[in-house]
Design a protein that fits this description.
With 685 residues, the chain is of the alpha/beta class. The protein is 50% helix and 11% strand.
Length: 685
């Protein structure tokens, strides 16, 4: 069908609360008048896509990264190098160079991008223009990945305008080519089909299914990127058909919900709830209502007043099920934390039960219970995670990779316990929410001393004061190091290293003076500063003499049509290698909970009772079909539970191999989408 065309850009109405800094022009509201059903979303104006530069975003995220690489480079870089780093083709690099030149010209800059045959691509920065280039980079940070921006626009058209939708109608509304949109619709069929939300009829695709699941899916996709990018590029489409009265009512409803819940939303959570209210209003006006919501409670007085306000101000009928889902969506929001808010919060009985089971399991494994001060915050995190799971809303966790990759040994130690607790497994939380729980537990696991698997022999040539100070300081500044003994420096040097009886006691020596010994050793200053301990960690010999590292191998994994099939192939190979002894359903759940994406690589580390043998595998995924949702590289570390004490050492070895042999470059289009759908959960369906 032919979708409604866009009004001129100066007529677009933007919600002040949803798009900070943008004021609604006076006199553009339509009061309580209902918009035409097809006007819930307005297509982008034609001039928003004229030429390579879009208003409000001179360069997209990939082009901004290209500019950053050129700024940081000392000389010229080849198109081949840049294409490999940025995960795109050389042709795209050359096209992006043209975009950067145009952007600089529009800014009135004299800085140029040079592309010389045989020399490569470089940046000639004119003195005084460096800050202007940094501003361009700042704009790229709030821009969206080009294809994901288009996909978000397509899903909004499919859910907020009457169907059926075809590649021709979507291409016309978005001013794109039918070929681009046909490729996207093929991707949408796969992603929506796994959630039972797609209805495909010939070349048409409609988004159908449980209304609550559809809204949760859309919200998860919208929040998979930074809020500034969504505000700038996507929300104007969703708010375009709303009146000033609609937006004022939404703002009041948000305030009413905060009052009813008894806490103030964080800034991002407040606008996320506003987006849901807009989506709810648009869907109701299109005739798509929540008929039932099994997870919610009977609407109380505050909710009924809120529903009456929406009905009166926005001229829509709001059912009890709509109000119950809205209440749960509000409960998904993060707080502006304060001690008063923490004291006032009362986690649900189920959340307290889950945390109680976690506490008992961790105490049994590591000898120390959780701090009483940590129990209630954990229960609040679990409760909000349960609500998000019920609503189908996967909230992006910007710290997920930092926790699961950078602190891999601690995360794996905690996971080796929690992922075998029945109450926790039954909760089936999203991987992003599990990352939040891990972050809250990092201090606990480090305080237990269970990560102190690197054994230090401290060598001193002075009095007992320096020995006591050095040993205590090293252990205080790093939970991975344990000072096993203090050795006499003169005797160690005379013998050329530790005595034969001590060779098996230490992994390496730490000394305050350089040692001339045939044994791994590190020199630090008598102050034993944080920099000294960081130097120890960075230069730790991973294996003392005679120790064999964990077996590892590089392999090729055949690419399949989608990531669902890729995960199955990965499971079969790990079992065939004799590394795992678990069912496929259990494997998929663990992969979803514990994995993270590092560059272009899916990384998974698991230490548990269902591991038969320790091993590392670095997979290259070959021959991925165009448009397939998967990663070009997969890295796996598995350890039996009996080797949990070696996690600090083994994960360092694993990450060295990942850095050397896996693909940590910038994701290309389809790999970028793999990361987003992994976050949202659709990949594992």
């Amino acid at each position: 069908m032919e979708l409604p065309r866009a009004r001129p850009p100066y007529q677009r109405r933007l919600a002040p609360g949803l798009l900070p800094g943008v004021q609604r022009p006076q006199g553009q509201g339509r009061g309580g008048q209902l918009p035409h059903p097809g006007h819930g979303v307005g297509p982008l104006p034609r001039d928003a896509h004229a030429g390579p530069l879009r208003p409000g975003s001179f360069v997209n995220a990939r082009q901004g990264e290209l500019l950053r690489r050129l700024l940081d480079a000392e000389g010229h870089l080849t198109a081949v190098e840049l294409a490999d780093d940025l995960g795109c083709s050389e042709r795209t690099i050359r096209s992006d160079v043209g975009v950067l030149r145009d952007a600089m010209a529009r800014e009135g800059l004299r800085t140029t991008v040079d592309a010389r045959r045989g020399a490569g691509i470089g940046l000639t920065v004119v003195p005084g223009e460096h800050d202007s280039l940094l501003r361009l980079l700042g704009e790229s940070d709030t821009s969206m990945h080009p294809r994901f921006e288009r996909l978000c626009q397509e899903i909004l058209l499919m859910v907020a305008t009457p169907g059926p939708h075809s590649s021709r109608s979507l291409a016309s509304a978005l001013y794109r080519t039918p070929t681009q949109v046909q490729r996207d619709l093929h991707w949408w069929r796969g992603v929506l089909g796994k959630r039972h939300l797609a209805s495909v009829k010939g070349r048409s695709v409609d988004v159908e299914g449980d209304e609550w699941a559809l809204r949760g899916f859309v919200m998860s996709l919208l929040f998979a990127l930074a809020p500034p990018a969504v505000r700038s590029h996507i929300l104007p489409m969703l708010t375009d058909g709303l009146s000033a009265e609609d937006l004022a009512a939404i703002e009041e409803c948000e305030e009413d919900l905060q009052d009813a819940l008894g806490f103030e939303f964080s800034g991002n959570a407040a606008w996320q709830l506003s987006v849901y209210l807009v989506l709810m209003l648009v869907r109701i006006r299109l005739g798509h209502v929540i008929e039932s919501w099994p997870h919610g409670q009977e609407p109380h007085g505050v909710l009924r007043k809120l529903g009456a306000k929406l009905e009166r101000r926005c001229a829509v009928a709001v059912s009890d099920a709509e109000l119950a889902l809205l209440w749960d969506m509000a409960r998904c929001c993060t707080w502006q934390w304060s001690l008063a808010a923490l004291d006032a919060a009362e986690p649900s009985e189920r959340a307290r039960t889950i945390v109680g089971a976690m506490d008992r399991a961790l105490a049994a494994a590591f000898g120390e219970p959780l701090s009483p001060a940590l129990i209630k915050p954990l229960a609040i995190l679990v409760e909000s995670s349960l609500v998000r799971r019920a609503c189908g809303l996967s909230a992006l966790n910007p710290n997920e990779c930092s926790v699961k990759y950078d602190a891999m040994d601690a995360a794996a130690a905690v996971s080796s316990v929690l992922c075998s607790v029945p109450e926790f497994v039954d909760a089936d939380l999203y991987g992003s929410d599990y990352g939040r729980l891990l972050l809250a537990l990092l201090d606990y696991i480090e305080s237990t001393g269970s990560l102190r698997s690197l054994r230090v022999g401290l060598v001193v040539n002075s009095g007992i004061d320096l020995a006591i100070w050095g040993a205590a300081r090293i252990e205080r500044l790093s939970p991975r190091l344990k000072v096993v003994d203090v050795l006499n420096g003169q005797r160690v040097e005379a013998a050329g290293g530790p005595a034969a009886a001590d060779l098996e006691r230490f992994d390496f020596l730490v000394s305050f003076e350089p040692l001339s010994v045939d044994y791994p050793s590190i020199t630090v200053s008598p102050a034993v500063s944080r920099a000294d301990v960081d130097a120890i960690i960075d230069s730790i010999p991973l294996w003392r003499r005679g120790r064999t590292p964990i077996p590892w191998a590089r392999k090729t994994l055949p690419a399949l049509a989608d990531a669902h099939g890729l995960v199955g192939a990965l499971y079969e190979d790990l079992c065939a290698e004799g590394l795992l002894a678990m069912g496929e359903e259990r494997f998929r759940w663990l992969l979803r909970e514990l994995s993270c994406v590092k560059g272009r690589t899916l990384v998974w580390c698991w230490c548990g009772p269902d591991v038969k043998a320790a091993g590392i595998r670095i997979y290259t995924v070959s021959g991925a079909p165009k448009g397939a949702v998967q990663w070009p590289s997969v890295a796996v570390l598995v350890l039996p539970i009996s080797e949990r004490g070696q996690l600090a050492v083994q994960t360092r070895w694993f990450k060295q191999l990942v850095a050397e042999f896996a693909d940590l470059g910038t994701p290309a289009d389809d790999e970028f989408l793999s990361t987003l759908t992994r976050q949202e959960g659709a990949v594992w369906a």
